[in-house]
Write a structure and sequence with these properties.
Length: about 425
C-alpha cells in the first residue's frame, strides 16, 4: 500500500534545516521534533527536492507555531508562579480576596475616649508537634502537644488579665495578634522526623483549632483583632528555604489562610498575610516590620544573637530607605530570646528551652511571648512579657554527690545538705 507523502511539509523541513544548519538547531528554533525534521529531510532528498534559498523568512505557519510555543511556555511559567497564591486562596480555600488592608481602628485613634493604646501580643516559635524530654535538658523544661495546648490558652488568658487588671480603667480599640512563624515543628531535620509527636498534617489541624480558639477569645475580650502573619523556616516542605515562593511551600502560610477563611465573615477579625517574608503595617503612626528572623545568621559566644540581629536590622533599614518603606521597629522570632529594644523586638518561644539549646550551651529562656502597648502619641510604652508556664512550676535539677564513699542523688545541690 502506497504511503501518502506531505510534499509541502518535506519542503518546509528541508528549508528549515538548510537555514539553521542542523536539524537540532531547526527543532530548537521552531518546536518541531528533531526526529520529525530528520525523516522529512530524508524523504525530500529522495524526492529530489531542492532547498529554497531565495527567501530569508520562515514560512508563515512555522513562524506562527514558534510564537504559539513561546506563548504557551510563558503561560505555563505564569501558572506555576501564581498557582499556589491565587489558586489556593481563591479556588481551594475560597477566600474572597488575596490582599487585606489594615483596619482603620489600628491606624486612627478614637477621639471620643482616652486610650491606653493598641496592645500587641506577639506569638511565634510554637513548634507545634515537637517533643522536649525533661531528662535531656536537666529537667528545666518539658514540651508536647498537651503542654503546648495549655501554654497557648494560658498565654491568652494571662494577656487578657494583664491588660484589663494591671492598668486603671483601660480602654483598647482592639488588639494586634502578630503571628511570626515556626508555628509548627515541621520535618526539616531528620531528628524531628523521628521524634515529632505526630505527622505534619494532624499537627496543622490540631494547631488550627487552638489558634482559632485564641483569636475568638481575644475578639471577645478586646472587640477587634488584627492578625498580621509571616512564615517561618520550620514549616516548609522543601529541603532548603526558598527565596522565590517562600510562603507557598510553608505550612505556616497554609495555616494562616485556613484561619482567615474560618473568620472571613467575622467583621471583628482582619488577617494580613503578605506573599513575601516581611509584613509592613502601622499601629497609629508607629511603623512595624514583622519578619521571622531566619534571614539573619551568625553570632558568637560573647554577643550571641544580638550581633546578627542588629546587622540584619541595619541591612533592612538601608534597603527599605532606598524604596521608601522605612520602619520604626522590627519585630521577629526565630532566636527564642526575649530582647526588647526601641528599634527591635525579639520574641522568645512557646516551646521553651530544648535539647538543641542545652547541648549548645545557650542561655536559659523560660517559655514566654512578647506583649506591649503602642500609644497614639508616644509610640511603644508598656512592655509585659507573658510567661506561659503554670505559676507553681519549679525547676528541679538533680545533683550527684558522694557521702561516705557511696554515690547518692539529691534533688538539690549537695552543699545545701548537712
Amino acid at each position: 500500500m502506497a504511503i501518502k507523502v506531505d510534499v509541502k511539509a518535506c519542503q518546509e523541513a528541508l528549508d528549515l534545516v538548510t537555514r539553521y544548519g542542523t536539524s537540532h538547531s531547526a527543532a530548537k528554533a521552531t518546536g518541531i521534533p528533531q526526529g520529525t525534521l530528520h525523516r522529512r529531510v530524508e524523504i525530500a532528498v529522495k524526492m529530489g527536492l531542492k532547498p529554497n534559498t531565495k527567501s530569508d523568512t520562515l514560512p508563515v505557519e512555522v513562524e506562527l507555531r514558534a510564537k504559539v510555543r513561546d506563548l504557551q511556555a510563558q503561560i505555563a511559567s505564569f501558572h506555576r508562579e501564581t498557582l499556589d497564591d491565587r489558586y489556593v486562596r481563591e479556588r481551594i480555600i475560597k477566600l474572597s480576596s488575596s490582599t487585606t488592608e489594615i483596619p482603620g481602628w489600628v491606624i486612627k485613634p478614637d477621639k471620643k475616649a482616652y486610650e491606653h493604646g493598641v496592645p500587641t501580643l506577639f506569638a511565634s516559635d510554637w513548634h507545634w508537634g515537637e517533643i522536649v524530654h525533661p531528662g535531656q535538658v536537666n529537667g528545666v523544661n518539658e514540651y508536647n502537644l498537651a503542654i503546648a495546648q495549655d501554654r497557648a490558652k494560658r498565654m491568652v488568658e494571662r494577656t487578657i488579665n494583664l491588660l484589663h487588671k494591671t492598668l486603671v480603667n483601660p480602654v483598647y480599640p482592639g488588639i494586634v495578634f502578630a503571628l511570626g512563624g515556626d508555628m509548627v515543628s515541621g520535618d526539616i531535620h531528620e531528628e524531628l522526623q523521628a521524634t515529632n509527636e505526630v505527622e505534619i498534617m494532624p499537627t496543622v489541624l490540631d494547631l488550627w483549632g487552638v489558634l482559632a480558639w485564641c483569636i475568638e477569645r481575644l475578639a471577645e475580650a478586646f472587640g477587634k483583632v488584627f492578625v498580621p502573619c509571616v512564615s517561618g523556616n520550620h514549616g516548609r516542605n522543601t529541603h532548603k528555604i526558598r527565596a522565590k515562593g517562600r510562603n507557598f511551600t510553608s505550612f505556616d502560610w497554609l495555616l494562616y489562610n485556613f484561619l482567615a477563611k474560618r473568620f472571613e465573615s467575622d467583621k471583628r477579625i482582619t488577617f494580613f498575610t503578605p506573599d513575601g517574608p516581611d509584613a509592613y503595617y502601622r499601629v497609629y503612626n508607629h511603623r512595624y516590620l514583622l519578619t521571622h528572623g531566619d534571614q539573619f545568621r551568625g553570632g558568637d559566644g560573647m554577643i550571641g544573637a544580638l550581633g546578627p540581629i542588629i546587622r540584619g536590622d541595619h541591612k533592612k533599614r538601608s534597603r527599605n530607605g532606598q524604596i521608601d518603606m522605612e520602619y520604626d521597629t522590627m519585630i521577629l522570632g526565630h532566636w527564642h530570646q526575649d530582647i526588647f529594644l526601641k528599634r527591635l523586638i525579639v520574641n522568645s518561644s512557646l516551646k521553651g528551652y530544648d535539647e538543641y539549646a542545652y547541648s549548645n550551651n545557650f542561655g536559659f529562656e523560660p517559655p514566654s511571648q512578647q506583649l506591649w502597648l503602642t500609644h497614639p502619641e508616644k509610640g511603644i510604652t508598656i512592655h509585659m512579657p507573658v510567661l506561659v508556664d503554670p505559676e507553681e512550676r519549679e525547676i528541679e535539677t538533680e545533683w550527684v554527690s558522694w557521702a561516705g564513699g557511696h554515690q547518692t542523688e539529691y534533688g538539690v545541690p549537695s552543699r545545701a545538705r548537712s
